Amino acid sequence: MMSNKRIIVDRLDGECWWGGDIEDGIRMPLGEENHARDLIRDGRSNQAVPFLLSSRGRYIWSEEPIRYVFEQGRIEVECDTGRVELREGFGSLREAFRAAASAHFAPDGNMPDPLFFTAPQYNLWIELQYEPTQEKVLRYAEDVLSNGLPPGILMIDDNWMEDYGVWTFRRDRFPDPKAMCRRLHEMGFKVMLWTCPFVSPDNAANFRFLERQDYLLRDAKGEIAIRRWWNGYSAVLDCTNEAAVGWFHGELARLMDEYGIDGFKLDAGDPQFYRADDRSCEPVHPNGHCEAWARVGLRYALNEYRACWKSAGRPLVQRLADKNHSWGADGLASLVPNGLAQGLSGYAFACPDMIGGGQIADVENQPDRQVEQELFVRYAQCSALFPMMQFSAAPWRVLDDQHLAACVAAGELHRALGSEIITLAKHAALTGEPIIRHMAYVFPGQGFERTTDQFMLGDTILAAPVLEQGARSRLVAFPPGTWQGDDGSVVSGPCTREVEAPLARLPWYRLIG
Asked: Residue ranges of the Glycosyl hydrolase family 31 C-terminal domain (predicted)?
């Protein structure tokens, strides 16, 4: 084992690396091209870990934030406040991952609520934006069922509450939230609410109370820190303060007890909203504040995060960062490589972004709120064999009958394979192993390290979604074995075949021998 504040590692012949920043998944595997990332000063908006994993059976780990550079056949990794270590000799990508998980982010046997894995989720962000109401929420849920989609987890997003940090339903929008939740439960849904660690300084009573209790983050001068985020300027709950977190849990418990809320989407917490010289109950790096916010969600079986630091192995739902309504690397093309990067970084309970993309700017820039229907369908199909899939823009509103039917079929496929996904999720809760797996993870030494447009669900299901506009066929790389397709075809691997993929088809294959 090599260990130091700074290490330099020579890249082995053909060696590929994953990890670090999940938003760089679209660039992975790392190694052949120059690449640098500073996780000490450049916190980002998705999951990250101080961990790099090699196809040649070795890994790099630190307990503290790192920066790393891939350049000229070597890797330089350094840490300002701790040590970096290289561990070798594990033989394969899979064995190196297992060793790292056991040593550094061992799971505790718990997993998120099973409904995440057995039915689509419905996040109302893109459909309702900042205008959710009780009437609109119930209508959306009714439309889910009337259009042939199964009930699942329904997430009421931003602006359901009185103010940021005031976690009480707005009565002008939600006159009877208890009745709303009761009706949603009757229809078969579970209900989650959007929350964040921000507190509006303009809500005098709440802000003054939290300030007196010393529950809010302070800046270097000792003043309450007011931070610019995507919805304006707010104070920030100090999640290193156990009493502050206790207050927050009390607010959420009231929503569960009074109204029947089942869980929470815990948004924000991004490292860029914190400063290295901030004053908090426990002095931590900005990434440490992100990690502290993630710990809040461990109390709830229904949770969702987007920004997380060093939270691998925990029973937290990890959604990919908001994607564009695009075929490119900022949209659909990123789902598989970034999802694979999640798994290889220890984030097994992964969810792609909302079907069609979750960037609000895409909607704001199109007042008629139209979508490219083919792209929407391929988003849904790509998501169907992930551990989770999440609708937002209402497919029955934005699609014609043909495209809607294809999306309903994708949702039905996810539901039909739900018991198998649950089995994989239980395995992940015990071992940390990914649910969707890189081809090189399952089939080492077969040359799949750079295959980023198909993936394995467990060890026996190969998914090959269509990711190119207008494509009605695609090349599929089959590993050794006998593979039976969703269309009834049988393929003997190893080989590469061009397979038909009309709009209604998501090509997937099961290993049968």
From this structure: 432-508
